[in-house]
Amino acid sequence: MTAGGIDRADPEAAIAEAARKYSNWGRWGEDDVRGTVNLIDGAARVRAAALVRRGAAFSLSMRFQNDGPQKGWRRRVNPVHTMTDTGTEAALGTQGFPHGFGGADDVIFMPLQCATQWDGLGHIFDHGRAWNGRDAARVVTSEGDRVTGIEHLAAPVTGRGVLLDVGRAVGEDGELPDGFAVTEEHLAATADAHGVTVGRGDIVCVRTGQLARVRRGEGWGDYAGGPAPGLSFTTAGWLHRTEIAAIATDTWGFEVRPNEFDGAFQPLHQVVIPHLGLLVGEMWDLDELAADCAADGVYEFLLTAAPLPVTGAVGAPVNPIALK
């Protein structure tokens, strides 16, 4: 047993129990395709818009570039950016346009979850069941996610954002070490230290400081899939009880790695995506926003975080914008 009461040897039982206790299946009807994003309503967006006082804007996205975090695991590679027309062709006059007109064009190839992104509701299954109890085999096929594709979230993911800078509040020198399990107690203590509440419909951003280590010059290393600070499996109850709409972290996998069970792989994902219907964001760059929040003492803001609406996708890139 760990200090949090986790039986490291029995992930199956812990996952099954959490799934039973925290399931949102049927909560928004049998045809639901938005999960916890349903908790952001129009009134919540109006209240969130009132949080903009200074007009300061922060992009929470890392750069989509070839020099990125991915190492090829499960065919996840970094973006491949290719120019199809350049200034060279324009200057040489080989583009075929009249009266000196010239231009540049480019294309990009990339996995949809190679950098800052949302996990869609069709991304993770539990024993062959997808969000809302659906048969995973009928939800996601070779044609994509035919039911809960990420395109359904193209408009509604705008609301009150809350930063929980656990790295600064709990860690040393503003960062948590790899393998640090962020518990409900850590989240509550951080919110209290920031003077902010977390509740229904919020989009919560949890900064661990791991991305800051990469930026400081340590390099990507095992950032993609290796040891990392992250949420403890025991936070499943907090994620359900607070009724947040979404959560995002500055790490590759959202939950602590190595995972808290022997031989397990991402057990918190297995509960919160198919059972809670929770929208999960990963690899968000929260450092600039965190510095501003620390400076002005305000940890809430308007957050717009629409995924790229790729029809049938089970995840998508996003450039979240926090406005204060």
UniProtKB/TrEMBL annotation:
It holds the Pfam family Cyclase. It comes from the Bacteria. SUPFAM superfamilies: Putative cyclase. One of its GO terms (biological process) is L-tryptophan catabolic process to kynurenine. One of its GO terms (molecular function) is arylformamidase activity. InterPro entries: KFase/CYL, KFase_sf. This is Kynurenine formamidase.
